[in-house]
From TrEMBL, chain A:
<dbReference type="GO" id="GO:0042597">
    <property type="term" value="C:periplasmic space"/>
</dbReference>
<dbReference type="InterPro" id="IPR030678">
    <property type="entry name" value="Peptide/Ni-bd"/>
</dbReference>
<keyword id="KW-0813">Transport</keyword>
<dbReference type="InterPro" id="IPR039424">
    <property type="entry name" value="SBP_5"/>
</dbReference>
<keyword id="KW-0732">Signal</keyword>
<feature type="domain" description="Solute-binding protein family 5">
    <location>
        <begin position="110"/>
        <end position="505"/>
    </location>
</feature>
<feature type="region of interest" description="Disordered">
    <location>
        <begin position="50"/>
        <end position="71"/>
    </location>
</feature>
<feature type="signal peptide">
    <location>
        <begin position="1"/>
        <end position="21"/>
    </location>
</feature>
<dbReference type="Pfam" id="PF00496">
    <property type="entry name" value="SBP_bac_5"/>
</dbReference>
UniProtKB/TrEMBL annotation, chain B:
<comment type="similarity">
    <text>Belongs to the binding-protein-dependent transport system permease family.</text>
</comment>
<dbReference type="Pfam" id="PF00528">
    <property type="entry name" value="BPD_transp_1"/>
</dbReference>
<dbReference type="InterPro" id="IPR035906">
    <property type="entry name" value="MetI-like_sf"/>
</dbReference>
<feature type="transmembrane region" description="Helical">
    <location>
        <begin position="99"/>
        <end position="122"/>
    </location>
</feature>
<dbReference type="InterPro" id="IPR045621">
    <property type="entry name" value="BPD_transp_1_N"/>
</dbReference>
<feature type="transmembrane region" description="Helical">
    <location>
        <begin position="9"/>
        <end position="27"/>
    </location>
</feature>
<feature type="transmembrane region" description="Helical">
    <location>
        <begin position="183"/>
        <end position="205"/>
    </location>
</feature>
<feature type="domain" description="ABC transmembrane type-1">
    <location>
        <begin position="95"/>
        <end position="305"/>
    </location>
</feature>
<feature type="transmembrane region" description="Helical">
    <location>
        <begin position="241"/>
        <end position="266"/>
    </location>
</feature>
Length: 596, 319
């Protein structure tokens, strides 16, 4: 989908979903047997009467009511982004299939490396769905809301500090952000953002320097920023810049849409859209009984649903590799709260690279994914998902099952067997604690399989705390600067559409929860957005090199990739989730007045 | 009587204060906070710390408790961390949904269960009794979640008789249509809840009726020549209601508890799911507000049950 999701599904959203149902994972075994198309090609002609009179019904699979925050600046969960998607999420830029920002959207972006500025030029006919013009102030106000000291937004990125005057505003010391200038006034169409440092990542949608949505300043200026999320301007009567305008929202249940006549782009064809929350316990049944045209393109559908729906008549499964991945992390150090840096501990239990590699080689992830992924998830070979088609290192091997190699690695590294279990090279006993989050019975089985495989190579691995951990306790433990309860853990990341991993694996990243740091890693990460990286081919090379390096170090090791997929009814025409389809909703039409 | 009620209400005050402290401390004692796990690889940890600080989550517990109590007396239960809305508003919305659904379910349950219980008791050991007992045991044995999924599948999806999601149709406009749509949306979960929630009432009532049948006052009435139907209606029924009346108070205050499974399967925004979600989100303001509310309702439920009991059975009236 074009609207690269601005809200990187917070781990919370992902994990709570995981806790309630099967793993949100996905397609294609390593042999590449399953691969979903990213578009449904409907050869029938669109029907005008169907477009005008029929309602496009979309199901949002979720186990609880959505929160109802329509504003992408304030929302922190994926469901809200899904149910308010036809409004366009007020996205500023269009992007190509590699998420690179291109001209043609609500605004165009021009970067000037020398002057260290980003110039955002709003198109002349850009309007809100109530007819108000989109202004330069609307672009800037998004930053004010995000960075206001009293905000409820969780989107403030540390990279915003490179905007001039941002730190002062964020600390409440300045009333405005001095780094924003308006060549033709606040009500004009141009904004110039002045940075102290430029980064090649700025060229991509979802980067952490330039926020890519607008706020309707005139419409919300009288609401204090602290109260914005609960205001009726955000909850009940929000306005949008996208192809559709909101007609009605039933809190927590459904949203209803009709075409926005002020939309700058391709006019919406279908006159009526309803998006309703459907419990993930019966969303498969809902599709089977043809109640919905499709499930939200970014909604969480499970492997078990795929099993039920893959052969359903009159529906096709359309999908895209997920912006995210499951991974294994090893605890190899601590976070120094004084210097605010991660530090590797040479003597820590998991500091030995051979030990980590051996543990990864011992796992039979191919078989696990085959059994529990139902065809929508597969073993990951690197720490960057294939949705980034340019950056993804296809040739990386990752860690396929290889017990022999695992044993060799351990033998060589001096982890000798003493009785039933191997001991540390210094002769002391070795017990490794595996941190795993509570999930479904399928996940429990997966964890048990991991333990069994590790036992096979003579490692005494036990579940940390003796059982699976509740999500909050799990992250509470891992986020501590120093902890020894968990030595290895399984978790997941959702990513923004700009893949720089500094915020999760960087030396000063608090989310680097395994505390892996090396000169090489820091160097590669710096090079990803260094001055040479303005040349894309170079940047791609660095990303690939980094993936290979991380695989070798195995401090964080790839777990699984999955598809984000949806069943699409055959009366729908123009359904295309490719990132370059920037006008997803206005490209949709219907070929029949009833769901087939 | 009134004295007793007044005294009971006065005792409630310390009860509620202690309850509120326990609730508050236990909520805070859970690992994590509203922002744990809400990790966003783009936005920094500094912002999370900032939000924790702004929300006073780093203050010592007694200070947080005091702030909370002060706000409480201003009718302000705080803002939900998850929803970024005043807690009173969220609970208000959900409470209305839950109240109507539970009320409908409870009324229906009694309508079904009372005649069944009496009938089974009256025909003890005969075929109708066996059938009714069998029915209650079966409904009691099957996990309610299964019933819901099966019910929504058969009646919602296959037969298409009932709506399958939400509390109201997104296209319902106007007061009348909205009320109609709301009722229509309650039907299936309500009926399922009632059909599969009869066991307690039926069993209690049945055994009471069986006991009452052989009691002296019934024999006397029979000997006097009172028609058997009248005996059941006036004598046995009223006496057999005692144990059920004992629950009535809880039933009334329990209307707001919500039903997690029903709400989840039917995507019905109610109190049950709100409670569970607020716990997994560590949405302290919502958790404390809800537990306090449930606690107070329970205390009132006990009182109400006692009052109802004393109305039904003058013997236990307390002075």
């Amino acid at each position: 989908m074009s609207k690269s999701k601005k809200i990187t599904l917070s781990a919370m959203a992902v994990l709570s979903a995981v806790a309630l149902a099967a793993h949100p994972v996905s397609a294609k075994s390593t042999s590449g047997t399953v691969s979903f198309p990213s578009a449904y090609k409907n050869t029938s002609a669109a029907s005008k009467s169907a477009n005008n009179k029929s309602t496009l019904k979309v199901a949002e699979p979720n186990d609880s009511p959505f929160e109802g925050i329509s504003d992408p600046v304030l929302a922190s969960n994926a469901e809200d982004a899904d149910v308010f998607a036809p409004g366009g999420l007020d996205t500023l830029f269009f992007n190509d299939k590699n998420y690179k920002i291109v001209n043609g959207g609500l605004a165009n972006l021009k970067l000037d490396r020398k002057a260290k500025t980003a110039t955002i030029t709003i198109r002349k006919n850009a309007k809100w769905s109530n007819g108000m013009a989109v202004t330069a102030k609307d672009v800037e106000y998004a930053y004010e809301v995000i960075a206001n000291p009293n905000t409820t937004s969780q989107q403030y990125s540390s990279d915003f500090a490179t905007i001039e005057g941002m730190t002062a505003y964020h600390a409440g010391k300045a009333k405005t952000i001095s780094g924003f200038t308006y060549p033709d006034g606040q009500n004009g169409k141009q904004v110039v953002i002045h940075f102290t440092k430029m980064s090649p990542s700025m060229k991509y949608a979802g980067n952490s320097f330039i926020w890519d949505s607008v706020e309707p300043y005139e419409y919300i200026k009288n609401v204090s920023i602290a109260k914005l999320a609960s205001s009726s301007q955000v909850r009940k009567n929000p306005i949008f810049t996208g192809a559709y305008k909101l007609d009605k929202v039933v809190e927590g249940e459904s949203t209803t849409w009709s075409p926005n006549k002020y939309y700058f782009g391709k006019k919406a064809k279908i006159k009526h859209i309803v998006i309703s929350v459907v419990s993930s316990s019966n969303v498969d049944k809902a599709i089977q009984s043809k109640k919905y045209d499709f499930t939200s393109p970014n909604g969480v559908m499970h492997g078990t649903d795929y099993k039920e729906l893959k052969n359903l008549k009159d529906y096709s499964v359309i999908g895209l590799p997920e912006l995210g991945y499951d991974y294994f992390g090893f605890n190899v150090g601590h976070y120094d709260t004084k210097t605010q840096k991660n530090v590797m501990d040479k003597n820590s239990k998991m500091a030995n690279r051979s030990l980590r590699q051996a543990m990864m080689y011992a796992l039979n992830l191919d078989a696990v994914e085959k059994k529990f992924g139902y065809g929508v998830s597969w073993r990951a070979n690197t720490l960057l998902p294939p949705v980034f088609s340019k950056y993804y290192n296809k040739s990386a091997k990752g860690y396929p099952l290889n017990i022999k190699k695992a044993n060799e690695l351990l033998d060589k590294a001096g982890y000798k067997k003493k009785g039933k279990w191997r001991v540390r090279p210094n002769g002391k006993p070795l017990t490794i604690y595996f941190g795993a989050m509570q999930g479904t019975s399928a996940q429990q089985a997966e964890y048990q399989d991991y333990l069994q495989q590790w036992h096979k190579i003579g490692l005494n691995v036990k579940l940390a705390t003796g059982k699976e951990m509740e999500m909050n306790s799990f992250y509470d433990t891992l986020e501590k600067p120093k902890q020894s309860k968990i030595d290895v853990y399984a978790a997941a990341w959702s990513l923004s559409s700009e893949p720089t991993p500094t915020q999760i694996y960087g030396e000063d990243a608090p989310y680097n929860m395994g505390h892996f740091v090396s000169k090489e890693n820091t160097k590669l990460m710096n090079e990803m957005n260094g001055s040479k990286a303005w040349t894309e081919s170079y940047r791609v090379k660095v990303f690939k090199k980094w993936q290979a390096y991380m695989n070798k170090e195995a401090a964080y090791a790839p777990g699984s990739f999955s598809y984000t997929w949806a069943p699409v009814n055959h009366r729908v025409k123009g359904y295309n989730v490719s990132p370059s389809n920037n006008e997803f909703w206005s490209n949709l039409s219907l070929t029949s007045s009833k769901i087939k | 009587m009134w004295k007793t009620i007044l005294r009971r209400i006065l005792i409630m005050i310390p009860e509620i204060i202690i309850l509120s402290i326990i609730v508050f401390l236990l909520a805070k004692a859970m690992p994590g906070d509203p922002f744990t796990g809400s990790i966003n690889p783009r936005a920094g940890v500094a912002q999370i710390h900032h939000l924790m600080e702004v929300n006073g989550l780093y203050d010592p517990w007694y200070q947080q408790y005091w702030n909370w109590v002060v706000h409480l007396f201003h009718g302000n239960l705080g803002e939900s961390y998850q929803y970024n809305e005043p807690v009173t508003r969220i609970i208000g919305q959900r409470a209305v949904n839950t109240l109507w659904l539970s009320l409908f379910t409870v009324v229906l349950t009694y309508l079904i269960a009372l005649p069944m219980g009496i009938y089974a008791g009256r025909h003890e050991g005969k075929l109708p009794d066996t059938v009714i007992r069998f029915y209650t045991y079966v409904t009691y044995c099957i996990p309610f979640f299964v019933i819901l999924v099966l019910g929504i599948w058969i009646f919602g999806y296959v037969l298409g008789w009932f709506p399958t999601t939400g509390s109201v149709s997104p296209t319902a406009n106007g007061t009348f249509a909205t009320i109609g749509s709301r009722f229509y949306h309650m039907l299936l979960p309500g009926i399922l809840g009632a059909l599969f929630g009869t066991v307690n009432i039926v069993q209690y009532l049945r055994s009471e009726v069986v006991d009452a049948k052989s009691s002296d006052y019934v024999r006397t009435a029979r000997a006097k020549g009172v028609p058997i139907n009248d005996i059941y209606r006036h004598h046995i029924f009223r006496n057999s209601l005692l144990p059920i009346a004992a629950f009535a108070g809880y039933s009334i205050t329990g209307l707001l508890n919500g039903a997690i499974f029903t709400e989840s399967v039917f995507s019905y925004p109610g109190m049950g799911l709100l409670f569970v979600n607020s716990i997994s989100y560590r949405d302290y303001t919502v958790i404390t507000a809800l537990v306090l509310l449930f606690g107070i309702l329970n205390i009132f439920g006990t009182l109400l049950s006692d009052i109802i009991l004393s109305i039904v059975d003058p013997r236990i009236r307390i002075e």
